[in-house]
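Office hours follow-up: a student asked to see two folded examples consecutively, so here they are.
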Amino acid sequence: MRPTNENIPGEPTRPKEDSGSLQRNKVLTLDVGPVISLSFWVFFGWIVGAVAAVCVFAAAIVWFCAADRAWSVVPAGATVVMAQGAGMLAARPWKKRHLGRWPMAWLIGRGVSFLGVFAAGALLYSTTRPDPLVFGLVTAGAYFVSLLAEVWAYSLQVKESTGGDVSLGVSSSESGG
């Protein structure tokens, strides 16, 4: 019997990639668009402004209905500001990224801020013992409005960074159009 090299381990052979799979991989990458960084302070300023507006509006309504419960608005607003600040720090807007990667960073920040609402809410609720209805409603409303403000701040910064041209660099033939 002749010895063969079939059972001797060597370098694994890799299948050859066809040009179609290379083209598909190129379209699916997130490294599209210009490389930009965004300002933490612009985001945080819009968030704090939105939360403050909601809290002033809510405090006026609560004051009119039951003045002794109006102070519950303050820990609710602080909860949202703390949670959104943590989410912004997790997203690291000062880091330069391709425009296609920014939505993923934003989603990471939103996950952190969503968990932060529960953590900061539990902390502030247990230490201050505000009215539960006012605290919960103002926290939910302020969080929603702060998300809208954050998206607005994102769009303003992207337009400013790209000069209004937010083309992702995908031609119509690659995207199927």
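And the second, which I mentioned at the end of office hours:
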Amino acid sequence: MNRSYVIVLLAVFALFFLQLFAGDQPFVWPISIGLIVLIIVATLLQLRRTSNR
């Protein structure tokens, strides 16, 4: 399993548990946005890497 897949998988789980358990804490939105950006960047890097083969 590639490193990008592991990063995306961990970020998705972190986002899920953050939304499930954190509630209306003030730190939820910045962390959620950061995790979504991380998921998008890692996915785009993986797609770019596999399309060159």
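Two things to take away from it. The two ends are 17 Å apart (CA to CA). Helices lie at 3-21, 28-51.
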